[in-house]
Design goal:
Elements lengths: L8 H6 L2 E8 L2 E8 L3 E6 L12 H7 L2 E6 L22 H13 L4 E6 L1 H12 L4 E7 L10 H12 L7 H6 L3 H10 L9 H26 L7 H11 L6 E6 L9 H8 L4 E5 L6 H4 L1 H14 L9
Parallel strand pairs: 3-4, 3-5, 5-6, 6-7, 7-8
Antiparallel strand pairs: 1-2, 2-4
C-alpha cells in the first residue's frame, strides 16, 4: 500500500506533487510529478527511493520546471524486475526501463539528474540515446573509482552469510537488523546527527520489504572486490568520452561512499564536464545540504538552457 508523499509543508501550499503508479515492462512503478515546463528526471541511488529528492522537487517546480522522480524497479514502492542484466553493454536493462518511462510520459527530450547508481544509469542512458538528453547532472555517480565501502560489502554479503541461503528472500529481508541499515544510512552523511528520522524509518521499512534483495542483486552485478567490474568499465568508459551534452558533476566534499577524488576520473572522461564540490556534505548531498545543492542545480540549468525550440 502506498504511503502519503512526503514533501515540505511550505511547498505543499504552492506546488502540488502528484504521486501515482505507472505500468512499465509489466511491473508497477511509482512516480512523483510536480510543476510544469522543461522536464527534469531525477534518479536515486541504490537502496534509495523518490523521496531522496523531496527538497529538490519543489525547488524545480517553483523555478518553472517539471520535476519527475520515480522509485527505480525493486526500490521504494516499485516492483522488482525479473532476472535482468542491469548494465549489459549489449542490452542494458536500465536503459530499456528509462526509455519506456520517457515514452509512457510522452517526453522526447529531458534533463537527467542521477545520484550514485542513478548517476551511472543516467550516463549509460545518455550514451545509448543521446538524442533524448539535453543536459546531464551526475551527483556522486558510481562507476569511476576503485573502492567499495565496507557497509555496501556487508549488505551485499549479509543476505546469505548472516541468515543462510535456504531462507526465502522475504524472510531474509524481514530479519535485517535496524542497526545495520541505519548505520549505512548515517554513513552517507558528513554529520550523522543531521539524518532526519523519516529517512531512517523509511530506509528500514523498504529494506525489510524487499529492497535489500534488489540492492544485493545490483551490487553483485556492478561491483567486484574493490570497485566496478573491469569488464563494465572497459565497455562503458569509452562511451562516456563521447558524451556531448552539457554535464555537471556534483559531489559532497566529505563523501565517504563515493569519494570526491573519483571526480577526477569523471572529468577526464566526460568532455567539458563542470565540477561543483559542496562543503560539509556526504554522499546524500541533496539531503544534507539542501539549499546549496538547489543553488548549484538551478545555476547549471539556467546557464545551460537547451534550444527553446526543442520539442519536449
Amino acid at each position: 500500500m502506498s504511503r502519503p508523499v512526503r514533501i515540505r509543508e511550505e511547498a505543499e501550499t504552492s506546488r502540488r506533487v502528484e504521486g501515482r503508479f505507472l505500468r512499465l515492462q509489466g511491473r508497477r512503478v511509482r512516480l512523483l510529478d510536480a510543476g510544469e515546463g522543461e522536464p527534469v528526471v531525477l534518479l536515486h541511488g541504490v537502496g534509495g527511493w523518490a523521496e531522496h529528492w523531496r527538497d529538490v522537487i519543489p525547488a524545480l517546480a517553483s523555478a518553472g520546471y517539471r520535476a519527475l522522480a520515480c522509485d527505480l524497479p525493486g526500490f521504494g514502492h516499485s516492483e522488482a524486475p525479473d532476472a535482468v542484466q542491469y548494465f549489459d553493454p549489449a542490452d542494458p536493462y536500465y536503459v530499456r526501463f528509462l526509455r519506456e518511462l520517457l515514452d509512457a510520459l510522452g517526453l522526447t527530450r529531458v534533463t537527467l539528474v542521477g545520484h550514485s547508481l542513478g548517476g551511472a544509469i543516467s550516463m549509460v542512458s545518455t550514451a545509448c540515446m543521446p538524442q533524448r538528453v539535453d543536459r546531464l547532472v551526475l551527483v556522486a555517480p558510481g562507476g569511476f573509482g576503485d573502492l567499495v565501502p565496507t557497509g555496501w560489502r556487508a549488505l551485499s554479503a549479509s543476505m546469505a552469510a548472516r541468515f543462510g541461503p535456504r531462507l526465502p528472500p522475504a524472510a531474509l529481508c524481514s530479519l535485517l537488523p535496524a542497526r545495520m541499515v541505519h548505520g549505512i544510512v548515517r554513513s552517507n552523511f558528513h554529520d550523522p546527527a543531521q539524518v532526519p528520522p523519516w529517512l531512517l524509518e523509511d530506509a528500514l521499512s523498504f529494506a525489510r520489504a524487499g529492497a535489500a534483495v534488489e540492492v544485493t542483486r545490483v551490487l553483485r552485478q556492478l561491483l567486484g572486490g574493490r570497485g566496478p567490474r573491469g569488464e563494465l568499465k572497459e565497455a562503458w568508459h569509452p562511451k562516456f568520452a563521447e558524451l556531448r551534452c552539457p554535464t555537471l558533476l556534483v559531489w559532497g566534499r566529505e563523501d565517504r561512499t563515493v569519494p570526491c577524488e573519483h571526480a577526477d576520473v569523471a572529468r577526464s572522461l566526460i568532455p567539458g564536464a563542470r565540477l561543483e564540490l559542496i562543503d560539509e556534505a556526504g554522499h546524500l548531498v541533496m539531503l544534507e545540504q539542501q539549499e546549496r545543492f538547489a543553488q548549484v542545480l538551478m545555476g547549471f540549468l539556467g546557464a545551460e538552457s537547451p534550444d527553446p525550440g526543442t520539442p519536449h
